[in-house]
Structure formats: C-alpha cells, structure tokens
Amino acid sequence: ACLELGRLDEALAAFARARQLAPESEDVYYNLGVGYEKQKRLDDAQAAYEKAAALRPTVPETRCNLGNIYREKGWLEKAIEEYRAAVDLQPYFGLAHNNLAVTYAMKEDFESAAYHLQIARTLGYAVHPDLLRHVRGELERRRPSPAGKDPSRR
User: Against a cut of 0.90, is the pTM above it?
Assistant: First the structure.
C-alpha cells in the first residue's frame, strides 16, 4: 500500500524487512525493484528484478520491468531479450509489445517497431501517437522510390 501511495522510503523499508523474512520470495524482490525504479535507483532496481527473475523466471511483468531498466541504461539488446521473454510468457501483453516497439525504434529497426506497435494496438494497448507517427514516417521515408520517379520531386 505504501508503494501505491508514493511513500517509497516506507515501502522500501518494509520490503527490506520482508526480504530478511522471506529471502526466496520473488514478490519481495519484484516490489523492491518497483520502488527502486520509482526512485531512479537503476542499479538497485536492476539487481532486485534480476533476483526476482532468477527466483521465478516465468513472471512476464518482472521480465518487462527488467527490460525497462536495461533500456534506460542503453542496453538495448538485453532489453529486447527481456521484452521477448515477457511476450513469450504472455503473448497478449500489450505493454511488452509496446516496449519492444520503442526499443526497436531506438535501434532504428522501424519494421520490427511497426510490427510490435500493430500487435500492441490490436491488443488494446494505448500506443503513444508520437511514436506511431515517428515509426510510420521513418518507414515511409526509407521506402524505396518507385522505378522511374525522381525521389527529389515528391
């Protein structure tokens, strides 16, 4: 409850106590990761999510959050691995598809970004319109010109 109310220090202290009582609880590490992430303590969040994923690798939300940390650190390939793991575990996870799209766009792989944006939208995830516009614009810009047309005269 403290975490949801924004009382992060209190929440993190409670989760640290819980970790001592239940050192093998994936939930404790996941919640520590959420708290650390909200405080922008990326190294601590990464360690907590990695421990949670090691304890229970089948939780798609943990894998997605770990991907967010990796992406924030600029480790795009590792982020993609985690988002893909989340999608493999839960194919209808719109947020993970969206995050894959964002990361592929960062890598300038706009075809993959468009693919995952389409899936996210189909699943009802509210894709940011600027991201959608950016990806579509880049695909259009990179599309080869039809034969016989001068690409400078659009």
Answer: no
